[in-house]
User: Which sequence fits this backbone?
């Protein structure tokens, strides 16, 4: 006979403002099996938990229902309180009367009625609950970091410094990411390479870090503490161990026709190339799409002149299979392609460039060796117009609804660098709003106006056309309430940032959550900002949302600390809410095995009594250490043989019946 206690939380005014909590407690006290009901202002507080423990002891409760906020917030809190009082933690049910009730109702009567219904459903489920016991699983003491930008490098270094081996998988030929393409960083105007390069070298030389560049994650299986990952190392056609990085192959290569991805297509590179001088590893890769040897079977100059015989045209992709305890996603970002914004003339006019292209033009290692010139005629620009929020904060399909967060600051940086290089130049910045929320950010942006005399104009550019070798910028000045027509030598577009290509495919492999913009979703925006809802998967950098370099490095350290906290454990407590098979109903169809994302279901032949006869049958078997309790198998099973402990079909239907009463 169950003895159930019900505890209704006010949550301050979050619940009590639209739910009469005392009435909810009184109504639920009348439900079958309920022997005690109470309400309290903050049930999650120490005093509230003490009330629960005391009631369990005083009334001999066999289960409790807590009507409070989402179980994602405080289910572990109440389970721990029950456990301390000697009650099985899985005899605790949470009725979410905040997010699912009080926050979406304004009428007190409606809110109270719904809270009673939700509490009634929880009581009905609890009447069918069975005590469950958690198991244990091994923790593999190795971490995988996907992405070799500043976020991935910093995360890997912090984990490696704690004594754990780390693998960095980077799909490009070198680590460094987007930061390697920058000239200066705001708000200090430090040289980006001077900050980043030592980190790259440290990562390459660290005894606990293994680099897998020009590689991609192909498949992920397993669960927190025990992931099995297949990594495809693409053929560089250059032996990493033999190559000395002398560069003779690149110098002699006759196929210098490929646009340099690192320099944003502003100059050509050879078919065998190193992306930039400080690349790590300092080993070239052959671009088969532009290599004459691969296209025609002729040439082979690089192999002939290589002093260390490192060129291997027959090299093939290699697939590694490695086990990891934790995975960190640090895949970074890309910029929205400007082709969809025809009004700015990008692609038609060579002197309309993106901010990242402008960054390469300013960089001493860039295509113009740091001389800021117009791409069309290599003349010094006298008047430059910067357009902010291109592709950001929009409502149409080609635009992103969010603020890209870094554009205001790097545009101010570009404006200041332009005025430093050419003090007699004119610089205009068109903006919607100026957003500078970081430390010393507002002061930095004001310097651009007050010290460098940059003209900030509140308004948007409507069109850019070319007349007599000049770019004609038509725009609106909203504060002066007038239309502007500016002759410019260059127009620079601050394009919106977006997740790196392939982020969604990777999320599918990791069974990680994403938002509608394809940024990875955190488990909780305030309490678990660097954890994915998928246990054992952590987030670092811009893969989670727009942020600047200091914030990225801070998040990298936070993700690393979470990984270290996981890897120091020898075992993890597993969730006992796993799938279970009723062998008397299983017909061996195999549907559950196909749908299981964790590979937790297999089949074996057993002697089973059916219809009065013992015969061999193919039956499903669940590996409880691997099962994550997603419930997919229970939904797909046509015979109803598969169920989920703690969430059986009987329990779910009992909740539905209670709601419909």
Assistant:
């Amino acid at each position: 006979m169950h003895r159930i206690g019900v505890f209704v939380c006010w949550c301050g005014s979050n619940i009590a403002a639209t739910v009469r909590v005392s009435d909810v407690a009184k109504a639920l006290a009348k439900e079958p099996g309920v022997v005690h009901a109470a309400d309290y202002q903050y049930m999650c507080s120490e005093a509230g938990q003490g009330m629960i423990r005391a009631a369990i002891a005083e009334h001999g409760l066999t289960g409790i229902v807590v009507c409070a906020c989402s179980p994602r917030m405080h289910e572990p809190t109440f389970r721990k309180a029950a456990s301390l009082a000697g009650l099985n933690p899985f005899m605790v049910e949470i009725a979410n009367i905040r997010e699912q009730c009080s926050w979406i109702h304004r009428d007190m009567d409606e809110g109270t009625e719904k809270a009673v219904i939700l509490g009634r459903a929880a009581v009905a489920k609890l009447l069918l609950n069975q005590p469950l016991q958690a198991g244990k699983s091994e923790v593999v003491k190795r971490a995988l970091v996907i992405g070799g930008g500043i976020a991935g490098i910093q995360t890997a270094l912090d984990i490696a410094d704690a004594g754990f081996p780390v693998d960095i998988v980077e799909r490009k030929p070198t680590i460094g990411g987007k930061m390697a393409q920058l000239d200066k960083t705001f708000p200090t105007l430090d040289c980006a390479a001077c900050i980043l390069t030592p980190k790259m070298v440290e990562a390459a030389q660290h005894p606990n870090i293994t680099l897998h560049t020009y590689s991609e994650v192909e498949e992920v299986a397993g669960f927190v503490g025990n992931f099995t990952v297949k990594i495809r190392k693409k053929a560089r056609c250059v032996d990493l161990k033999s190559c000395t990085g002398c560069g003779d192959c690149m110098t002699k290569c006759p196929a210098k026709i490929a646009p340099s991805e690192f320099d944003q297509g502003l100059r050509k590179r050879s078919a065998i190339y190193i992306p930039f001088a400080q690349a790590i590893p300092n080993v070239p890769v052959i671009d088969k799409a532009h290599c004459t040897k691969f296209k025609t079977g002729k040439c082979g100059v690089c192999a002939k002149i290589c002093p260390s015989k490192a060129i291997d045209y027959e090299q093939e992709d290699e697939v590694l299979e490695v086990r990891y305890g934790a995975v960190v996603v640090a895949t970074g970002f890309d910029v929205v392609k400007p082709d969809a914004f025809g009004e700015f003339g990008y692609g038609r006019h060579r002197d309309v460039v993106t901010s990242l292209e402008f960054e390469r033009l300013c960089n001493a290692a860039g295509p113009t060796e740091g001389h800021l010139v117009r791409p069309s005629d290599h003349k010094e620009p006298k008047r430059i117009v910067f357009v902010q929020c291109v592709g950001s904060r929009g409502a149409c399909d080609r635009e992103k609804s969010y603020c890209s967060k870094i554009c205001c600051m790097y545009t101010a940086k570009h404006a200041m660098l332009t005025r430093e290089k050419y003090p007699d130049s004119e610089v205009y910045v068109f903006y919607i709003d100026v957003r500078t929320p970081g430390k010393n950010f507002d002061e930095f942006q004001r310097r651009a106006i007050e010290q460098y005399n940059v003209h900030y104009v509140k308004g948007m550019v409507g069109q850019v056309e070319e007349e007599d070798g000049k770019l004609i910028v038509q725009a609106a000045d909203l504060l002066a309430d007038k239309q502007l027509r500016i002759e410019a030598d260059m127009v620079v577009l601050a394009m919106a940032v977006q997740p790196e290509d392939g982020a969604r495919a990777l999320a599918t492999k990791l069974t990680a959550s994403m938002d509608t913009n394809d940024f990875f979703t955190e488990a909780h925006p305030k309490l678990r900002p660097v954890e994915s809802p998928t246990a054992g998967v952590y987030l670092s950098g811009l893969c989670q949302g727009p942020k600047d370099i200091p914030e990225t490095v801070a998040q990298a350290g936070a993700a690393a600390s979470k990984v270290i906290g996981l890897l120091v454990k020898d075992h993890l407590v597993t969730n006992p809410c796993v799938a279970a098979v009723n062998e008397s109903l299983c017909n061996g169809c195999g549907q559950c095995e196909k749908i299981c994302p964790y590979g937790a279901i297999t089949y074996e032949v057993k002697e089973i009594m059916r219809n009065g006869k013992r015969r061999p049958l193919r039956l499903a078997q669940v590996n409880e250490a691997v099962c994550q309790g997603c419930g997919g198998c229970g939904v797909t099973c046509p015979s109803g043989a598969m169920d989920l402990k703690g969430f059986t079909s009987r329990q779910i239907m009992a909740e539905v019946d209670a709601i419909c009463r």
